[in-house]
Amino acid sequence: MTPFIQLHLLTTYPPSNPNRDDQGRPKSAVVGGAPRLRLSSQAIKRAVRTAPQFQAALEGHLGERTQRIGEVVRDHLIGTRGADEERAYEIAETMADIFGKPDADKNKDGKGPFTAQLAFVSPDERRAAIALAERALDGEDLPAKADKALKKTVLRRADGAVDVAMFGRMLADDPDFNREAAVQVSHAITTHRAEVEDDYYTAVDDLKTAAEDAGAGFLSEAGFGSGIYYLYANIDTRLLVENLAGDTDLAARACEALVEALATATPSGKQNSFAHRPRACYILAEAGAQQPRDLSGAFFTAIKGEDLRAASIAALETMRDRMDDAYGDGADDRRVMNVFEGSGSLADIKAFVKDAVSGPADDARPGGR
Questions:
Q1: pLDDT digits (tens, 9 = 90+) for 75-104
Q2: What is the chain's percent helix, strand, coil content, to nearest 5?
Q3: In this structure, how many other beta carbons lie within 10 angstroms of the beta carbon of residue 358?
Q4: 299 near 189, Cβ under 8 Å?
Q5: Domain map of the chain by residue range?
Q6: Backbone torsions φ then ψ of 300, nearest 5 degrees
Q7: Strands (DSSP E) along 148-296, which ranges?
């Protein structure tokens, strides 16, 4: 097993607004004094988790990030076991308390029970919560509020939930059951200057007659932008396997699915308005025991020129080579997919990543995660 896998992707987005800020406009950042468009790491990870190919490849091994685990338990007890609604709610409250504090505002008039925080719940934990709730319905005594002993019967430090293993979780009241993320994902930024543009648009009322007026029935503005985005991700393969309770085969499958999702999935904001369906045009995959490092410095000075795609690839590869010259090789092995040169393929990258995870063990590891 190779300790670290690093992924560098360049993806060309058409005019679109996949990831909005609080004003409904594309997210942005100033990098090296130049305005850039930005996709948040949270939006990218959400796109990965919900991507059909990721879901299909890892069916049965994905968790749920939710405030509604108590509602799931309540509905199961009523629908499957025919429990009285009041008793089902009482048991479900205790189950929900295992994952987080109750949300007093939402838990009114028999709704929920909901937790105040979103909790990442693995399939094993969901099954354990339902099984414990069924035992309580059959007469087993449960405390009114979940205690440490009760939580240990449901919560897991490691199991087969790939997305929890990759992206981690925090249970503020139960840090023993936190998961450190084995996958880190950067915010994606455009390699060049890019600013938000405004689209003035109208909608026509089909039933308005010409005799009334010639105006539209509705008008508004919407922000959009386009550009070539650089995205960096790294995988701590040993931590991933540890989080998956030692299942190396599942970890390898997970990394394959992650690569495909990063290359093909996108945040879905304004998808119907812009139909943005980009795929990565360039992927550099690296594997080795070396301490991970991103190559975003290649774009601190905004790329210029008529062919921004070629210039972005050249800048990325130049930065990689110069970092190697200065610090020593940043990886033991590499693979490249370059759509414009017709070299490499997504299948090549996936196979490379799978082999890096499932290959022979390598005991060398730099300090710190």
A1: 999 999 999 999 999 999 999 999 999 998
A2: 35, 25, 40
A3: 17
A4: yes
A5: 4-59+181-196+224-358, 65-159
A6: -65, -40
A7: 183-185, 188-190, 197-203, 218-236, 280-288
Query: Which residues fall within 8 angstroms of residue 343, CB to CB, at 6 or more apart?
Result: 336, 337
pTM of the model: 0.91
State the residue for tokens 């300790």: 3
Print the SS3 string covering 315-362: HHHHHHHHHHHHHCCCCCEEEEEECCCCECCHHHHHHHHHHHHHCCCC
Structure tokens at 362: 């390598």
Q: Please state, as a whole number, how many other Cβ atoms lie within 10 Å of the Cβ of residue 181.
A: 20
- Percent of the chain at pLDDT > 70 equals 97
For the chain, count helices (H), then strands (E): 12, 11
368: left (phi over 0), alpha (psi -120 to 50) or beta: left
> Identity (one letter) of the amino acid at 280?
A
